Amino acid sequence: MSEQPVNEKKGSQNTASAGEAKSSQDLQKQIAEATEELILEPIPEQPIEPTRLAIEERLPEDIDLSDPELYFNRELSHLQFNARVLEQAMDENHPVLNRLMFLCIFSSNMDEFFEIRVAGLKSQIEYSREKNGPDGMHPAKVLDLISEHAHQLVRRQYRILNDIIFPKLAEENIHFIRRTLWTEKQAAWVKRYFRDNVLPIISPVGLDPAHPFPRLANKTFNFVVELEGRDAFGRENGLAIVPAPSSLPRLVKLPDDVCEGGDNMVFLSSIIHAHADQLFPGMTVKGCFQFRLTRNADLEVDSDDIGLDLAGALRTELQSRHYGSSVRLEIADNCPPHIVDSLLAQFELSDKDLYRIDGPVNLSRLLAVLELVNRPDLMYAPFSPGLPNKLAKSSNIFEAIRQRDYLLMHPFETFSPVIDMLSEAAKDPNVIAIRQTLYRTGARSPIANALVEAARNGKEVTVVIELRARFDEAENLALASRLQDAGAIVVYGVVRHKTHAKMILIVRREGAELTRYVHLGTGNYHAGNARLYTDYSFLTCDKEIGDDVHRVFQQLTGMSKELKVKKLLHAPFTLRDRLLEMIAKEAENAKNGEPARIIIKVNSLTEQRLVQALYKASQAGVKIDLIVRGICTLRPGIKGVSSNIRVRSIIGRFLEHTRVYYFYNNRTPLVYLSSADGMDRNLNNRIEVAFPIQDYKLARRVKKELEYYLKDNTQSWLLQSDGSYQLSKPRKGEYRSAQRALLNDLADNAR
């Protein structure tokens, strides 16, 4: 990653726990190093000298593995992940439009972070339900640190946009033209655009006793306008709110005939700002300032109040999602203090919740650039996902799966066999039943279409839809209605446990027998995500796995005691405990002088018992590599506790999403793929499965692909014991990228 300097443009107290002061200092240092200094300072070639902790002065047998010093704060670790995403906008190895995309992804990530995580902390304090995590930090202190470091991240985000990305796009003849730089022709065109497209649908609201402050929905785009003068009724209040209609594009492309070549765009904010006086005829507009309010968007469906209608309860709750409590105010950095104070008071927010913005609010809307300009040369070159040779040559996918198991890694290998398996099943007269879990897929997706066709063709189709997949609830309700209309049986899983497992079970009559064909995956049944996320798909007709999947569906669709499964690990029943057993077995092997190794690749690692088991294994001498994309509360490199643990995060072109659990097992490796992360919610409060890769060649392949990630030195961030993340720095000529290696191995490569 190339480092460039960025010039900065000028423009509730609670008692802490005993160990919090030291922990807070560490956390402030880790966030600072993971945010501001990673861009402004060169990255050292050698690991950062770790901060020495008090716990390291004790003998290993005297160390309490629940000591807060051994854990990073979950929310601050989450914020660090967002910082690493933002760093991609500085990486010159990414094409410039992809770098802009990372800025947009960062904005979207931060929105959700405030809507869910910050909102949750605020709710704890508001309702006196504060709960310290394993790190021992009080929610009020966490909020203070989040505010401090989120402000640093947002400031840097806009500096990168204004000082680096916009100039680089201008070099490529892609321009975002400020209103002060419009030519006469451009100004005239914009004026007509405002008159024809904006003015007819915009509704300014003057504030007075008869016009109360409008109820603004979550993340809507608005302006506060300062006025001078009296209107026709003699009113003289001085402020108005102008909500920008959601139907209007936030970015408008100027026609070629008013420009001098290239792609030229203006922001809706500039258009409204330039013509604000037309919204208030006869009044003087003293200032017009964009702002956006973020609200609590976490749905709270009370399990005790659902009755027999989860869908109905969810529909009711969705109506209020847009109007939760306020958590953040973003506003133009030149807005006068008295107006800012007025808005903060209106939304019951403090200065810590205020983010002054040097540019357009909601940068995620900049993704529209990709549709407005045709510049494939400024993005990653497209590729054709690979397909195993035997699958490509087979005219019947069931015959192919009957001969052998298949393991696919998306997006490097195509998702089409999963869709093909369902599509063939929908038409195949020998298929009598289909069962599937759905978490995020879309009401009109190819998967949904195949299930609808199967139901209409008389197959017994049963679908377990998780209605509470965050921010996909409305889409899942629509999907459920469509499937029910087609004649499918639709259930919503288990009320207090989200169904996150990814399973398809197809029952096919073959002669006098019924054969079960199974798909198990680490990701969602969403063809679009399969081009963006790294995930595994496993296709098999193994009898015992088929029986296990059948039993899991029995538990989901009916009511029964826990049913024993032979090969799958099943949360919330056996998955966590079996993982702990396999970790303990590696520790025992190490104590007996046998080689021992653990490799775990997940999105997040927070479950305390799992972390403590890994600490114990490290103390026993087990070599442990953790590939954790996002949140990691485990502290590596602690003498006497975790000196045998390495943690890395891979951030690259594709979103890392595979979950893999590898155990050396005294030379007989155990390899499990899973839908579950190493989090409390996944292991204890969700329906999840982990499935074994029993075929020796496939298991060896998974290990090889894990090694790609462990050898990555271009997109790999190493977690230090003080909590900072250090970007790997390759020597000249020794560049190794896991995602590039997987593209080379798997994409467009018939085998």
Label this structure with key terms.
751 residues; alpha/beta; Endonuclease, Chain A; 3 domains; 27 strands
Could you describe the 3D structure shown?
- Residues 1-11 have a biased composition (Basic and acidic residues).
- The chain is an alpha/beta fold.
- It has three domains: 179-378, 2-Layer Sandwich (polyphosphate kinase like); 405-563, 2-Layer Sandwich (Endonuclease, Chain A); 570-746, Endonuclease, Chain A.
- Helices cover 36% and strands 19% of the residues.
- It contains 21 helices and 27 strands.
- Strand 19 (597-602), helix 18 and strand 20 form a beta-alpha-beta unit.
- The longest helix has 33 residues, at 139-171.
- The model is unreliable at 1-25 and 27-50 (pLDDT under 50).
Topology:
Elements: H1 20-34, H2 36-40, H3 74-87, H4 96-126, H5 139-171, E1 174-176, H6 184-198, E2 205-206, E3 221-228, E4 239-243, E5 251-253, E6 263-267, H7 268-274, E7 284-295, H8 310-321, E8 326-332, H9 337-347, E9 354-357, H10 369-372, H11 389-393, H12 397-403, E10 406-410, H13 416-427, E11 431-438, H14 446-456, E12 460-465, H15 473-486, E13 489-491, E14 498-499, E15 502-510, E16 513-521, E17 533-540, H16 543-557, E18 569-571, H17 575-591, E19 597-602, H18 608-620, E20 623-628, E21 645-650, E22 655-656, E23 660-663, E24 670-674, H19 680-684, E25 686-692, H20 696-711, E26 716-719, E27 725-727, H21 738-746
Parallel strand pairs: 1-6, 8-9, 11-12, 12-13, 14-25, 17-22, 19-20, 20-21
Antiparallel strand pairs: 2-4, 3-4, 3-7, 5-6, 7-8, 10-17, 11-15, 15-16, 16-17, 18-25, 19-23, 21-26, 23-24, 24-25, 26-27
Helix pairs in contact: 1-3, 1-5, 3-4, 3-5, 4-5, 13-14, 14-15, 17-18, 20-21
Domain Polyphosphate kinase middle: 185-367
Binding site for Mg(2+): 440, 470
Catalytic activity: [phosphate](n) + ATP = [phosphate](n+1) + ADP
